[in-house]
Design a protein that fits this description.
The chain is of the alpha/beta class and 220 residues long. The chain has two domains: 2-120, Rossmann fold (3-Layer(aba) Sandwich), CATH 3.40.50; 127-216, Arc Repressor Mutant, subunit A (Orthogonal Bundle). Strands 2-1-3-4-5 form a five-stranded parallel sheet, sandwiched between helices. It has a four-stranded antiparallel sheet with strand order 6-7-8-9, with helices on one face. The protein has a three-stranded antiparallel sheet with strand order 10-12-11. It contains eight helices and twelve strands. It has helices spanning 10-22, 33-42, 59-68, 84-92, 105-119, 152-163, 171-178, 189-200, and strands at 2-6, 26-30, 47-51, 75-79, 97-100, 127-129, 132-135, 140-143, 146-148, 169-170, 206-209, 213-216. 40% of the residues lie in helices and 22% in strands. Helix 1 links the parallel strand 1 and strand 2 (26-30). 31% of the residues are buried. It binds calcium ion (CA).
Length: 220
């Protein structure tokens, strides 16, 4: 899942990016309010982690702008401003949740999972399609009752195809889902992930649509 991290503190930003990547998230990190606005105009994110005290444009102003434009992306505010009026203002401005610094990565991940579940309108974590069962929060996959060990990117690719249901996703769309800005993408990266998924799960699970891309195949 691709998330936008908006944080101007280099140490906090760096450690969050590392921690989230280790959990399999694709993370784009921006350091000011204007860059955050730009990022959301050009990229689809599953979730935004938003600091409030930011250069160029304050986090609350950025958030209000998104909500005025009816952008529904879940936003979790991360800030040192722990006074009650600040928290209330953050939530009233359209934040979905609020975490006061310093916080534990485990708590942040738990809140992110809760928001992602709520966004998906599900009370449970897992998605089932045929004999395929996928838990986007715990990053686990079972096929025909057998758990499979997937890399973070293999998982992200499979998740993208499941979400697309029967629609075809192009290689570019998949790269966009799997890789953050500035990350090196080998030209055959998607083909390699597809090959590995077929090998680990089933050769029929992913269909190649020649000249267009990939879609979910036989999940029985
Ligand atoms: Ca800050």
């Amino acid at each position: 899942m691709r998330v936008l991290l908006v944080e101007d503190d280099p140490m906090i930003g760096d450690s969050l990016r590392k921690g989230l990547r280790a959990e399999g998230f694709t993370v784009d990190w921006v350091r000011d309010g204007r860059a955050a606005e730009l990022a959301l105009e050009t990229t689809n994110y599953a979730l935004v982690l938003l600091d409030l005290g930011l250069p160029k444009k304050d986090g609350l102003t950025v958030l209000r702008g998104w909500r005025q434009r009816e952008l529904a992306v879940p936003v979790l505010i991360l800030t040192a401003r722990d006074a009650v009026p600040d928290r209330v203002e953050g939530l009233d401005s359209g934040a979905d949740d609020y975490l006061v610094k310093p916080f534990d990565l485990a708590e942040l991940l738990a809140r992110m999972r809760a928001l992602l579940r709520r966004q998906a309108g599900r009370t449970r974590d897992s998605i089932e399609v045929g004999a395929l069962r996928l838990d986007p929060v715990a990053h686990t996959v079972e096929y025909r009752g057998q758990p499979a060990q997937l890399s973070a990117r293999e998982f992200a690719l499979l998740h993208a195809l499941v979400e697309a249901s029967n629609a075809v996703m192009s290689r570019e769309q998949l790269e966009d889902r799997l890789y953050g800005w500035g990350e090196e993408v080998e030209s055959n990266a998607i083909e390699v992930h597809v090959h590995n998924l077929r090998r680990k799960l089933s050769a029929q699970l992913i269909r190649t649509v020649r000249g267009i891309g990939y879609r979910l195949g036989d999940t029985a």
